[in-house]
Amino acid sequence: MSFEMLFVLLLILTMLAGLIFEVARPDMVIFSALVVLLLSGILSVDEALSGFSNEGMMTVALLFIVAGAVQKSGLIDQMMGKWLENSRSQTGSMLRFFLPTSAFSAFLNNTPIVVTFTPIIKKWCEDRGIAPSKFLIPLSYATILGGTITLMGTSTNLVVHGLLLDFGMEGFSLFTLAVVGIPAALIGLIYLFTVGYHLLPDNKGFSQQIKEDSKEYIAEMQVTPAFEHLDKSVKDAGLRDLKGLYLIEIIRGDDRVSPVRSTTVIQNGDRLIFTGLISTIADLQKIKGLKLETGTNIDLDDLKNGTTNLVEAVVSDQSSLLTQSIKQAQFRSQYDAGVIAVHRNNERIQSKVGDIVLKPGDSLLLLAGADFVDKYQQSNDFFVVSSLDTPATLNQSPAKGWFSILVLLAMIITVTFGWLSMFKAMALTVLIFMAGKIISPQEAKKYVHFNVLLLIASALGIGVAMRKTGLAEWMASGLLEIGEPLGLMAILFIIYILTNVFTELITNSAAAVLMLPIGLEMAETLGYAPMGFAVVIAIAASASFITPIGYQTNLIVYGPGGYKFTDYVKVGLPLSIIVMITSVLIIYNVWF
Q1: What is the pLDDT of residues 167-224, one digit of tens each?
Q2: CATH number of the domain residue 383 falls in
Q3: In contact, 510 and 502? CB cutoff 8 Å
Q4: Are residues 582 and 461 in the same domain?
Q5: CB 462 within 8 A of CB 159
Q6: Are residues 170 and 278 in the same domain?
Q7: DSSP state for residue 116 in the 8-state scheme
Q8: Does 109 map to a domain?
């Protein structure tokens, strides 16, 4: 092993450790590794930047815009909501909902699908007394399974396709992966409807628990004339940094002040609404002039008014809020919203709200301005799940909604018949959407997840370093020494398992980029066509079921479903094994 190979190997291991232990956002960890390779001279500037011009990566950017434009109308959401309402039994409901959801995921980005449908399913479950936890993990898994069916189903498929083109090989057609994806999806869904359903926990949703136990979350104090800080600001009155408590609203006659700022002035007769550790409310009673309202009839639903809403939001894995406390992030002033409670692992975090350090997947119950959902729906900081008060409405005229769906279908047809490449068809679709004023350039920019693109492009540069230094060839020969005596099928299983483990620990696109050069080297050494190896890696990188952190959609339903980490292992491990066996057997018989 040369010094350069050893250096790249150590850098990749350091990068993996950084991703596993969440020392920073995944895109920044991988980009940092790319910068080190550039500064060390292992990669030239052109090689380091090659990932930023990769066709697969650029196609992913266009896919974000197309999916956002189609879903903007709300037509699909409305249709699925009505379709679900007609269901009677739980199994029938799962069939009616998850089969079409998988089909949608084959052609649309699955992250917005899960963000959109999570509140629809939650409300449907709560209205019928069904635990949302029985439906939300299956929602995520159904979209992942659907994404394995087509080239545009996930960013991973497009990245592998782009890499194959970069290597001078023929990429995937639109339905190359369907040979494996459709059987794997059908078998996976049958498992979820039967065995998987019984393995799922029976949890109440976060918002359901809070509404049932309102008195554990909020308390009311009355300001009397004896209060010595009358007509002073909240900060000067000493009500900003209370032990375990958080002032979220002031009721003043018929008016409400929410969220409460440090400059808000306290007046006689104000009703102060606190959240946090209500067990510490006794400390407030020691303050002269503040009287605890023991018979208060305030509950969570009373907090909302014309200008505020109760919103449930999930912290994303790309959030700028990670690794700092709510107070350090200046949450209240930054988002014009007060945090009422934080849920993690199906439990409310029992500490002062301001001191909680947020992690990916945390569920926040917020008292927020009426425009919070619209404002932060596309934010990298949150997967905004829903306002708990207002139902989803159509965001544009039905005519534009139907037009966007028809344009998407036309794009699929042009790619299917080979009239245009995926990239050209996507670019034309975005142009038509802008010319038809389906979306504006500003909206298009909002739909693109630039952090995902940075991650993919940086990972592609690291893949170049692996090939250039000979590390990919060295690793491939090492794996072949283990697998060759066991036969080709054993080698395919080894590649699948390695890729899948990387996906669960880091990210799906990074896993595909790291494993593809190794898989292609193995194919060349063994004398096989590379397509079978590429398909194994694409499917294995997408099929992330065992952890909530391996795939964004798993993270989105983590908090709202009240799940624990072990729930994903219990339900996802058998599904991973089923999909792996199905995929490898089909690939072995079709491509070898």
Answers
A1: 889 889 999 999 999 999 999 999 999 999 999 998 766 666 666 655 566 778 889 9
A2: 3.30.70.1450
A3: yes
A4: yes
A5: no
A6: no
A7: H
A8: yes
